[in-house]
Write a structure and sequence with these properties.
Elements (H helix, E strand, L loop, with lengths): L1 H5 L14 H21 L10 H4 L2 H8 L28 E8 L5 E9 L45 E4 L6 E8 L3 H14 L5 H6 L3 E3 L9 E3 L5 H9 L4 E3 L10 E7 L6 E5 L11
Parallel strand pairs: 6-7
Antiparallel strand pairs: 1-2, 3-4, 4-8, 5-6, 8-9
């Protein structure tokens, strides 16, 4: 949804400079709008009608992006007019993943997640794994599309990703950014790093990122890495964002990612693995 909203932004000024105040402001606002909608509409389609076509339509995106102001936040300090928590992620936790592309061109993006550490802490008898607790992302609000119901799948952020070229449908990349509700935020950032700023996979992962934090009472902070210019941080604060700059021990807040790209002309693969984690790229 966030990428579809960005398609509707007027002009190109916002994307002229990577991690400028205007660039980050636009992404933060668009991601908040996407969270506002997904926290309500994303649920198990076997139990509820999810208006996917309408949510991804250009008409809906144009109406939503019209809410974004270039010089001030839509929702002061993350406050949403109806639900203060809907403009930021729900409770967040961790994930692991890997990416593989073989010599025949088959690509796999794999994500595994217990969600909170050891998940539920429940171990089925005779096996060596714990059961996940993704049910933590259900709503207990009566009438909510994502309300807890037996047998129902919850809203979650397990997002293994493949990107294809729109004209040829050939593989552009397989990628993910682990880290709970950082996943969709990280996906937008590393993909734009490649498409708008022509970074290779490693560079796209290495540059500083931001993360809209989980709800804390009536608002949520935006966390940015130390590599974001101090003048940019102050400019974002002047626009109304509640910014916290992370220190070197907190970089996992912005997730850990892997990317493999494939050149459509010669088939050359290029891989990158995030230095914030413990992975590495390997050839075969």
């Amino acid at each position: 949804m966030a990428l579809n909203l960005l398609k509707q932004v007027d002009g190109d000024d916002w994307k002229q400079q990577h991690n400028s105040a205007q660039y980050l402001h636009t992404l933060i606002e668009v991601l908040r709008l996407a969270f506002l909608d997904t926290r309500w509409f994303v649920t198990d389609p076997a139990f509820e009608h999810v208006p996917v076509a309408e949510l991804l339509s250009d008409e809906y995106a144009k109406a939503r992006i019209a809410l974004v102001h270039p010089d001030k936040v839509l929702i002061p300090f993350g406050l949403a007019a109806v639900d203060p928590k809907r403009g930021s992620p729900v409770l967040s936790s961790g994930t692991v993943s890997f990416q593989v592309v073989d010599g025949a061109g088959n690509a796999v993006s794999m994500v595994n997640s217990n969600y909170a550490g050891f998940g539920t802490g429940l171990i089925p008898q005779g096996v060596g794994f714990t059961l996940q607790n993704r049910g933590a992302n259900f709503s207990l609000q009566h009438g909510h599309p994502n309300v807890f119901t037996p047998g129902k799948r919850p809203y979650h952020t397990i997002i293994p990703a493949l990107a294809l070229y729109s004209d040829s449908q050939l593989l552009h990349s397989t990628f993910t950014v682990m880290g709970g509700f950082m996943q969709p935020q990280g996906h937008v950032q590393v993909l734009l790093n490649q498409l708008l700023f022509h970074m290779d996979p490693q560079a796209a992962l290495d540059v500083p990122r931001f993360c809209i934090g989980t709800s804390e009472g009536d608002f949520s902070y935006v966390y940015v890495e130390p590599g974001v210019d101090e003048a940019v941080v102050e400019a974002l604060r002047l626009k109304g964002h509640a910014i916290r700059v992370l220190d070197a021990t907190q970089v996992s807040t912005v997730g850990r990612g892997q990317i493999i790209t494939k050149n459509p002309r010669n088939g050359v693969l290029c891989a990158g693995s995030d230095g914030r984690g413990d992975g590495l790229p390997m050839g075969w």
